[in-house]
Amino acid sequence: MQKQLQQSIALILAFVIGILFVACQPTTISQTPTDQPQQSPAQSSITAIPVAYPNQELSASPAQLPPLPYDAGALSQAIDAETMQIHHDRHHQAYVDNLNKALADQPNLQKLSVEAMLRDLNTVPENIRQTVRNNAGGHLNHTIFWQIMGSGGGQPTGAIAQAINQTFGSFENFQQQFNQAGSDRFGSGWVWLVQNPQRQLQIVSTPNQDNPISEGSYPIMGNDVWEHAYYLRYQNRRADYLNNWWDVVNWDEINRRYQTVTQQQ
Ligand SMILES: [Fe+2]
């Protein structure tokens, strides 16, 4: 009887020791890798930044021509009033009209902003993709263009001035490289200062009405090098137009755009 009791106690002790042994083992937390590709902060956040206006993307339901934010003659130091009027009232209006025509039977696309369509052109059906690319791009590019002009040019101010000096060495170097890229653009297109996906300032040139957001970059400022932007005063002299254009650049607005992209990333 006593022997049985001893055996029972030994069994209970072995059981308790076993439980304690298991409980004291280090805990392993299983880490299941996510299937989602990891985006860099720049890539993930740039998609959320409105490009046309500080806090508002450009509507496509329907697209509307924004008024010039100043009198057509306000930039006459660099661009004559008649060129400005034709550029805004006819060329920009045509991009708006052609975009609305292309989207007329596309209610789902009309719900997207112009920026959203251009960020991912694959969302646009193939039969209208090129038309949307040209005209949504034309609408967005000119909407930005009117806003980044209208002041007296001069030297850049604020954070953008510092960033330009750091990236290009000096404002003069930056101007020279920007003008060169504008001159080198074969045919029609734009020259831009962008913040690229690696968060660096970069001068890029796009053909036709392409906008840098289609390549994941944020356009801080851009100049239109289509002949329609300068033809009445300059005819074919694009280089003269590029040089004089700096006299009507609005650095306050460009600085605001730069701060928008750097603060939201
Ligand atoms: Fe234009």
SSE layout:
Blueprint: H1 2-23, H2 41-46, H3 81-102, H4 107-110, H5 114-119, H6 126-147, H7 158-168, H8 171-184, E1 189-195, E2 201-207, E3 218-224, H9 231-234, H10 238-245, H11 251-264
Helix pairs in contact: 3-6, 7-11
This protein binds fe (ii) ion.
The site of fe (ii) ion has 7 residues, from helix 3.
Key features?
single chain; 265 residues; mainly alpha; minor pseudopilin epsh fold; three-stranded antiparallel sheet; 11 helices; 8% strand; globular; binds fe (ii) ion
Characterise this structure.
- With 265 residues, the protein is mostly helical.
- The protein has a single domain, classed as Iron/manganese superoxide dismutase, C-terminal domain (minor pseudopilin epsh fold), CATH 3.55.40.
- Helix content is 50%, strand content 8%.
- The chain contains eleven helices and three strands, in the order H-H-H-H-H-H-H-H-E-E-E-H-H-H.
- A three-stranded antiparallel β-sheet has the order 2-1-3, sandwiched between helices.
- Helix 3 packs antiparallel against helix 6 (126-147) and helix 7 packs across helix 11.
- The chain is globular.
- The site of fe (ii) ion has 7 residues, from helix 3.
- Fe (ii) ion binds at residues 87, 91, 142, 224, 226, 228-229.
